[in-house]
Design a protein that fits this description.
Order of helices and strands: EEEEEEEEEE
Oligomer: single chain
Structural class: mainly beta
Helix content: under 10%
CATH topology: Immunoglobulin-like
Number of strands: 10
Number of helices: 0
Length: 120
């Protein structure tokens, strides 16, 4: 039986309503793949084992159906590392908003920000 003191229990690190900007070196030029998705907000979570998770709320800005995939989202960690979620594939109808919980794997460093690149 699990209890609230288990080391694998996720706790909320913080809620973010606006994207934060950091200036870590990005020698490999990692950035999210452009899409019709707008990242509305996210809640960053972790546990004592270093698992990093987030609840993302996104809107499909297109009037047509779209598929959100892992390369549309990137997280920046406190050591400057940039990673996409481990698994992500979610169908959206036109103009639909959805929330999804995703894992960014394990890291001793916390997630500082999460981005989606909206097509212009």
């Amino acid at each position: 039986m699990a209890n609230a003191n288990d080391k694998d229990t996720l706790t909320i690190d913080r809620f973010v309503s606006n994207n934060l900007e950091f200036s870590f070196p990005n020698d490999k030029g990692y950035k999210p793949k452009s899409s019709d998705f707008d990242l509305i907000n996210y809640v960053v979570m972790s546990n004592e084992y270093g698992e990093r998770w987030a609840v993302l709320t996104l809107t499909n800005l297109s009037s047509g159906n779209r598929v959100l995939e892992r390369d549309h989202i990137m997280a920046t960690f406190a050591d400057g590392e940039v990673k996409s979620p481990l698994n992500l594939k979610l169908d959206f109808e036109g103009k639909e908003t959805q929330s999804i919980t995703v894992s960014f794997g394990k890291s001793k460093f916390p997630i500082l920000s999460i981005k989606a690149e909206t097509e212009k």
